[in-house]
């Protein structure tokens, strides 16, 4: 009797894939030899089926402000009926002139977010265009917020003339589970002191469940 041989290869998803094929012509025992031919195996990451949509908002060249300022907020509004999972943020900055400001752009958990300039849904990109419109609200223009714990720090540019910073990626650490924003909760991007010569590029990615 002949049995189809199926071999599953696990390990580092970046490792070279091992293609396999062959048949077993007797009940296997001990070490079996497998011919290595055919198509390679590959690893594909798929979306959690409980996620109804994944979204990104990106603001470019947001001018700096001398006083303390809330540059961007993402909030899961009260009564949304959804859970928002923060996936990550991307920050960079440049300066149109010299600046000696050292205060970083900081991320905080926040609540009671209001004011500022609410961004239209049309300014938010969907990972899949067929996904529903997001419930999360994005605000620019110094919205008010009650701050909670700090999450991250992204340094500003320091330059005697024009300068910039590389893109700073803020991910959710692997193995920790999702970073959840329940209805009424959010995140604020805030600088305690700034410079009108600084320009911030701010992107945030999230999923909704």
The biggest sheet, with number of strands, parallel, antiparallel or mixed sense and barrel status, is: 7 strands, antiparallel
SSE string, helix = H, strand = E?
EEEEEEEEEEEEEEE
| Quaternary status | single chain
Mean pLDDT: 86
Uncertain ranges: 1-15
Characterize the overall form.
Answer: globular
Supply the number of helical segments.
Answer: 0
Total discrete domains: 2
In total, the number of strands is: 15
Task: Give me the secondary-structure category.
Answer: mainly beta
Helix content: under 10%
Spatial gap, N to C terminus = 49 Å
Beta fraction: 35-45%
> What is the rounded Rg?
24 Å
Describe this structure in words.
- There is one protein chain.
- By secondary structure, the protein is an all-beta fold.
- The protein folds into two domains: 1-45, no CATH class; 53-208, no CATH class.
- Helices cover 0% and strands 43% of the residues.
- It has no helices and 15 strands.
- The strands form three sheets. Strands 3, 5, 8, 11, 12, 13 and 15 form a seven-stranded antiparallel beta sheet that branches. Strands 7-9-4-14-6-10 form a six-stranded antiparallel beta sheet, with no helix packed on it. It has a two-stranded antiparallel sheet with strand order 1-2.
- It is globular, with a radius of gyration of 24 Å.
SSE topology sketch:
Blueprint: E1 3-4, E2 23-24, E3 53-63, E4 69-75, E5 84-95, E6 105-114, E7 117-118, E8 125-126, E9 137-140, E10 144-154, E11 163-164, E12 168-171, E13 179-181, E14 185-191, E15 198-208
Antiparallel strand pairs: 1-2, 3-8, 3-15, 4-9, 4-14, 5-11, 5-12, 5-13, 5-15, 6-10, 6-14, 7-9
């Amino acid at each position: 009797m002949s049995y189809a041989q199926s071999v599953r290869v696990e390990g580092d998803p970046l490792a070279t894939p091992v293609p396999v094929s062959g048949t077993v012509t007797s009940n296997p025992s001990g070490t079996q030899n497998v011919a290595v031919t055919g198509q390679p195996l590959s690893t594909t990451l798929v979306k959690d089926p409980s996620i109804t949509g994944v979204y990104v908002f990106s603001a470019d060249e947001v001018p700096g402000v001398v006083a303390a300022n809330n540059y961007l907020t993402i909030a899961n509004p009260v009564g949304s009926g959804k859970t928002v999972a923060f996936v990550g943020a991307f920050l960079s900055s440049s300066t149109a002139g010299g600046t000696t400001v050292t205060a970083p752009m900081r991320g905080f958990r926040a609540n009671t977010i209001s004011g500022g300039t609410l961004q239209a849904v049309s300014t938010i990109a969907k990972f899949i265009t067929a996904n529903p419109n997001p419930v999360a609200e994005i605000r620019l223009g110094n919205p008010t917020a009650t701050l909670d714990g700090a999450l991250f720090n992204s340094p500003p540019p320091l330059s005697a003339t024009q300068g910039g910073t590389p893109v700073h990626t803020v991910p959710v650490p692997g193995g920790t589970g999702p970073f959840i924003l329940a209805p009424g909760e959010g995140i604020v991007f805030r600088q305690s002191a700034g410079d009108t010569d600084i320009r911030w590029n701010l992107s945030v990615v999230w999923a909704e469940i």
